[in-house]
Amino acid sequence: MQRSSFTESLADLKSRGVRLTPQRQMILRYLKETHEHPTAEQIFHQVSLEFSGISMATVYNTLHRLKELGVIRELSYGDMSSRYDGNDSEHAHLVCETCGKVVDVPCPPKATLESPELDAYGYAVGSYRLEFYGICPKCQAEEIAKGNPELN
């Protein structure tokens, strides 16, 4: 699971003629250097610690643009707040159904997941999103401490 670094992503965007304001660079750096999957609000909070003049609109616009350019991914889980992933390699996610934490995990290449059943639909598959749902160790421990018999 080899993800592009901030430096590699920056060079790629520059080579494509993308305008890279200090705000865009800071947001991109944060997403490329974290292994978390933050919401836009979390990104705003983190980036505003170093760049006090940044607005929420700038964060949303930058996230939208970086997603369009393919250097980050947007993960939607139906709770009205997307999470953003700076890992641009093919990988799967573990999602905690209790706290919402998202963790990257390696997964098989697309070619090993394709099957004749998929071919029957006639789609030209370009990418996929594989997710596993469960309860993270921290939430399991909290449930056990509460006396939840299902996790004992």
TrEMBL record:
<dbReference type="GO" id="GO:0003700">
    <property type="term" value="F:DNA-binding transcription factor activity"/>
</dbReference>
<keyword id="KW-0238">DNA-binding</keyword>
<dbReference type="GO" id="GO:1900376">
    <property type="term" value="P:regulation of secondary metabolite biosynthetic process"/>
</dbReference>
<feature type="binding site">
    <location>
        <position position="136"/>
    </location>
    <ligand>
        <name>Zn(2+)</name>
    </ligand>
</feature>
<dbReference type="InterPro" id="IPR036390">
    <property type="entry name" value="WH_DNA-bd_sf"/>
</dbReference>
<dbReference type="InterPro" id="IPR002481">
    <property type="entry name" value="FUR"/>
</dbReference>
<keyword id="KW-0678">Repressor</keyword>
<comment type="similarity">
    <text>Belongs to the Fur family.</text>
</comment>
<keyword id="KW-0804">Transcription</keyword>
<dbReference type="GO" id="GO:0000976">
    <property type="term" value="F:transcription cis-regulatory region binding"/>
</dbReference>
<protein>
    <recommendedName>
        <fullName>Transcriptional repressor</fullName>
    </recommendedName>
</protein>
<dbReference type="GO" id="GO:0008270">
    <property type="term" value="F:zinc ion binding"/>
</dbReference>
<dbReference type="GO" id="GO:0045892">
    <property type="term" value="P:negative regulation of DNA-templated transcription"/>
</dbReference>
<feature type="binding site">
    <location>
        <position position="96"/>
    </location>
    <ligand>
        <name>Zn(2+)</name>
    </ligand>
</feature>
<feature type="binding site">
    <location>
        <position position="139"/>
    </location>
    <ligand>
        <name>Zn(2+)</name>
    </ligand>
</feature>
<keyword id="KW-0862">Zinc</keyword>
<keyword id="KW-0805">Transcription regulation</keyword>
<dbReference type="Pfam" id="PF01475">
    <property type="entry name" value="FUR"/>
</dbReference>
<keyword id="KW-0479">Metal-binding</keyword>
<feature type="binding site">
    <location>
        <position position="99"/>
    </location>
    <ligand>
        <name>Zn(2+)</name>
    </ligand>
</feature>
<dbReference type="InterPro" id="IPR036388">
    <property type="entry name" value="WH-like_DNA-bd_sf"/>
</dbReference>
<dbReference type="InterPro" id="IPR043135">
    <property type="entry name" value="Fur_C"/>
</dbReference>
